[in-house]
Amino acid sequence: MLDPTELEATFDNLMRFTLDKSGELTPRRRGQGQRSRIATEIRVELEAILKRPIEVDDINADFCELLVLRWKRQGMRRTSITFRYEWFITANKVAAKLGWAKLDDFRHIKPERSRSWHETRQNVEMPEITPAPVIDESKAAEQQMTLSAMLEDHYIPARLVGKSKNTIRLYRICIRNFTKWLGRDPIVADMNTETIGKYLRHSLEHLELSPHTVEKEAAEFRSFWTFAAKRGWLPTFPEIPAISCPKRIPDAWSDDQMVKLMGACESATGTIGRNKASHFWPALVSVIYDCGERISAVLSITHTDIDAQGWLTVRGEYRKGKTRDKRYKLRPVTVERIGKLHKGDGLVFPLPYSQGYIYQLFGEILKAAGLPNTRRDKFHKIRRTTASNFEAAGGNATALLDHTDRRTTEAYLDPRFIKSIQPADIVPGIGEAGVDQDATGDGNAKLLDQFRDFLKQQEAGQ
């Protein structure tokens, strides 16, 4: 029997194992016909895309989705696509069992269903391949470089060192989405006003994307493009105008809604890693509610970050911007809920799969609670709830959220929580303008008289 602990985490060694009917690791028999052929074909195709040898981490949902889209565009039979899709799932499970990769979620990929590109970016039939632009022969090497290579070999080392993994992930997603639209790997020369403008306009007019999402990608293209232009790889700088984004009114959970949410958390079934879901969710929601931190920071805390008095230290390296540590007092009930979690791992909230999957799981909790389940109703809404309640109670939400600009904080404060004068509070209603006014027409005269009487009573009391 092969000992996985003595093997290096490589693709070839990964292919030496499979799963039996009970889901346990077992050595793969030599050959195994079609599955061996599928693995070879996928390896060749991925290495052609990546321009490097395949790694175990490449067996994930992102690359599976990309290849499924290509296979659909190429007219591959659905049964053949399904076999390859199932190979990805099994290979990822084997890698997770070996401890070489995290278990990824492939459920959003539908290999047997074709959907129009105009409906969504997920699992779509590819548009016609966009021809590559004309290359400047004097800059051929740079302009023919793929955007993925530019990101990994040039942009990340120069601009993103020290940035969070999520920031780098968003840049990769931007390139992946552009790849789907082009129908081929984008190159540096594709960053021109005509191509980028068509892509952004298509995203706004035909896809179910918010202007904020499209503007985020536009900003990433501006950054890429400026980086290349400063190095002389492109002849012009970006001329992509800012996309108008409506400013949304911040909304928070009411107390009744938080009670429903906590009830659904405590009633959750199953497990998340080694923790019962009914222990994991109440503890996670309680920590976010007590400190108002981002989900990425909370998922990074360890048991040593919580002292015996119930103080939580969220270290700067966990937080957005990585600027400074923050310390928060946890409620006793929160500490009690954390105490029910498994302590064998360093992390308080260890995840057995990719971090993005937790949003989908939390959506199921929201549904069970009978609460809205949109993109604005996930963990950040708990952060807005804490900020709104803190400000309403007399606290400084800007300091709590560690913002440098008060205008940033205002995007978190639900106006229903904050004490502010509304027109309905002071403006007379329709047909009520003459109510309580004296003969002079001065509506404040009665109040002034009452105030004078009050002052006289105070003087008499002295």
Keywords summarizing the entry:
single chain; 462 residues; mainly alpha; hpI Integrase, Chain A; 3 domains; 19 helices; globular
Describe this structure in words.
- There is one protein chain.
- With 462 residues, this protein is mainly alpha-helical.
- The protein has three domains: 4-98, no CATH class; 137-230, no CATH class; 255-410, Intergrase catalytic core (hpI Integrase, Chain A, Orthogonal Bundle), CATH 1.10.443.
- It is built from 19 helices and six strands.
- It has helices at 11-14, 33-50, 61-73, 78-98, 140-143, 147-160, 165-182, 193-206, 211-230, 255-266, 277-291, 295-298, 332-339, 357-368, 379-392, 397-401, 406-410, 423-426, 445-461; strands at residues 17-19, 25-27, 271-272, 275-276, 311-314, 326-329.
- The strands form three sheets. It has a two-stranded antiparallel ribbon with strand order 1-2. Strands 3-4 form a two-stranded antiparallel ribbon. A two-stranded antiparallel sheet has the order 5-6.
- Strand 3 and strand 4 form a beta hairpin.
- The chain is globular, with a radius of gyration of 28 Å.
